[in-house]
Amino acid sequence: MKLNDRGLLIVISGPSGVGKGTVRKALFDMKNHNLEYSVSVTTRAPRVGEVDGKDYYFVNRAAFEEMIRQDRFLEYAEFVGSYYGTPKDKVEEMLDKGKEVVLEIEVDGALQVRERMKDAVFIFLVPPSKKALYERLSRRGTDTPEIVNKRFQKAESEFKLAYKYDYIVVNDDVNNAADRIMAIIRAEHARTQRTIQKYQQLMEE
């Protein structure tokens, strides 16, 4: 029996290049989960293999800015010339259905969500070392050397914000990192502050 009917909002965040997408995929490949991925909106061009509506909703800048004016984002940020945002209505709809909603977003966006969704679970994904992060950024081959350096410099400032998160998970091995995140999700469902009201109701029946 579930002691909390509303789903959990799980925010997986961290500097660019730490492997957020890869860990999220490994998490969703696990069996017997109730996870739903919140697809973000972006103005950047699709990368090879990315599918509109599955990896991102790809829109132009004017459309994105209109969504900002209509307050349709749970969070949004501009990074290296492109907007990224989380559509608010879709997240709330999934949470109301009892789904575990996973956001995979940049640090700026995660801190916005922290202000608006106090009961969300915030997980800061980090690389095993700065050297490993730089190698990952360079190896992707999707950015120019200048952008790689910008991402790395931004990452160095973002590491200092780890204290704003509930958990820190080191991505030393993708499957290990996914296992740790799943353990966090299961533990959060048993947290007293989330379940005490429903528990007391059950004890009164």
From TrEMBL:
Regions that span the bilayer: none
Organism phylogeny: Bacteria, Bacillati, Mycoplasmatota, Mollicutes, Acholeplasmatales
Protein name as catalogued: Guanylate kinase
Domain of life: Bacteria
GO MF: ATP binding; GMP kinase activity
Keyword Kinase belongs to the record: yes
EC number: 2.7.4.8
Catalytic reaction list: GMP + ATP = GDP + ADP
HAMAP family listed in its UniProt record: Guanylate_kinase
Family classification: Belongs to the guanylate kinase family.
Domain annotation Guanylate kinase-like: ranges: 7-186
